[in-house]
Short C-terminal domain-containing protein
Amino acid sequence: MAWKKALYYGAIAIAILIAVSIIVSIVSALLSLAWTVISAAVSLAILAALIYAVYKIGSWLLGGDGGASADEFGTSRTSTTSKTVDPQEKLRRDYVEGRISEAEFERRIGEELETESLSRDLNLERER
């Protein structure tokens, strides 16, 4: 009877060993899959960053639209955009920044609108 008990406990020990081995294999496979996904995501992020850096450097060197050209390297980008601001926008900005009063703003904007309507009328007469 001692042999039967020993075989019984031995069979149970082997079954437990197999179950633990299966569980460890499943956990290992899941961890391996998670590591693969994380590694791929990090690799893609690094690749995207390198491509972006090459693009920015290339556009800077070639003077493209992506960045400042080599001639503009020390200058401010606002200096190039301030040349194209319309007078009404400049008046609004001066008013918002407190450089002119509300009455002065309304007077100047009225003059600007009158000037625009006069130029439209002149253009319409020229077209006729």
